[in-house]
Structures are given as C-alpha cells and as structure tokens.
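Apologies for my clumsy wording, but could you write out the amino acids of a protein and the tokens describing how it folds?
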Amino acid sequence: MHAYLDFERPIAELEGKIVELRQMAKDDPRMEIEGEVTRLQGRADQLVKDIYARLAPWQKVQVARHPGRPHFTDYISLFDDFTPLSGDRGFGEDAAVIAGLGRFRGRSVAVVGQEKGNDTQTRLRHNFGMAMPEGYRKVQRIFDLAERFSLPVISLVDTSGAYAGVAAEERGQAQAIATTTQACLNLRVPLVATIIGEGGSGGAVALATANRVFMLENSVYSVISPEGCASILWKRQEKTQDAAGALRLTAQDLLGLGVIDEIIPEPVGGAHRGPDEAIANVGDAVAQALSEFSALPPDELRLQRRKKFLAIGRDLVK
C-alpha cells in the first residue's frame, strides 16, 4: 500500500478494507468476496476522482511532494543510452543536479534536471534536490555542449529551491543561478522544460527559462515555498495553507497568468498512482514541442524565448 496524504484518509479506509477482505479470503479460500471487493473498489475509484477534481492549493503542494511521485531518475526511462556527465570543471560534482546526453525518440538530446531522492539514503545523497553552485555550473557546461553539437535541451525541474547554506553562498550561489538563467536565454537550440513536482524559486527558474514550459497537472511553481511565505508575511506556520492560496502556485493559476504554456494531465489520483502514464504523458508533450521548434533557425529560437519571458505579466499591469 502506498503512502496516503492527510486528505486521502477516506480513500485509505476503503482501500484498507479491500486489503483486509483479500487477506481474509487468502486465509479462508471458501469466502466469497469478489462482489464486495468490486463494490468497495468502485466507491474508492469514485472517491479518488471526486477528491482530486477539487484539490485546494495546499493539497496540490502535498501531491507535488508525494514520496511516490516519479522523480528525475524515473524519467530517465524516456531516454535511450543516457550518459550522465559529472562536475562543473571548477569545484566538484553536485548530485542534486543530474545532467547528460542521450537519445529521445531517435534524436540526440541534452538532459538536465534535479533529483530529490526517494528514501533517506538517496535524499541525503542528492541533498533533497537542492543544488549547490557547482550544480548550476554543470548545467551551463551541458548547455555549452548542446549548443556546440546542435542538441535540443530537455529540462525536468523538481526542487524546493537552491541550497541556501553558508557553503553555497561562499561559492557564489546567487551568481550561479543568475548566469544559468542567462545561459538559458542565450541558448541557440530548443529548450523545453517541465515542472514534474516542485518548482521552487530561482533554483527552478534557472532550469526553466525555456522556449516551452510545461507543468504536470498537480505540480507547483512558486517564488517561495508556502512555509517560507507564511513565516515571512505572518510569522506563523499555521498560515501555510493561506500562503499556498495567495502564491497562485498551481498549474491552473500559472497557465492563466501566462507563466507556463501548457498543463500535462496526470492519471486520476496523481502521478504517484500511475507513474508510467505520467512519464509517458510528459514524453509525448516534449516530443510535440521539439517537433514544432525543429524548423526554427537558432537566432529565432533565442529571440522567441526572450520575448516569451519579457511578455510575462504585461497584461496584468494594463
């Protein structure tokens, strides 16, 4: 049984009863349970649809952070012959950022993104997806290779934000984020970004200043986490849910604001309930975007990307 979020408790109760019935039938093969199991499963499936059709912003944050949600390493299945490249050629390797070269549906591409990890050991190894400056400089190194060999770049964003510790600041975190964002804007090859979980602050923008920006249906994208916003504006953690609503961080909000270009649907009940389907949906969306950009000359790709980001927010101030 997978991990249930707080608001999924009614679903957990129904699915728990189904598990109990099946265990009882296993212990006593004479029991007839199929009719009851079918009835309970139907109720559970409908409950999942009803709950996920009306998720509040804070609930979407919880879904985006679900431990079973597919991470960058799961999306590697989209690429053939993926070869990770390590280090920034200046300081060292940052495991929070994975970057490399591979083939996507028959086409050579460069791939960058953050990896959070999925258990205690891997989360510590990847620093929970919070990149150090060397991680962003590694991304710039991959961008240079992509431009040199005319490779489209696919970015998969999943971070609560860049690492904000003393060591990161000593090594130039702010400059690393800014220069990586600038490198995105200067690329003369197609750049397609997808927010697959959390898109937090400049740590996400540095990998998502793209020609086309997608978000999975239950992912979130914001200048700060709801917890951070609540602590700054209200000085009270119990205001976290209010902060999530005020930040307009859902895919639906951001599509309306013109910050993103398209929402990629997730399976009913979130990507954690159907990871293979969610990964395939991302692959299809990215493939379609790359086909649209394949005919554009390098300077036009760069100009289109710059115009896109300069236009964000203009309609809001008219």
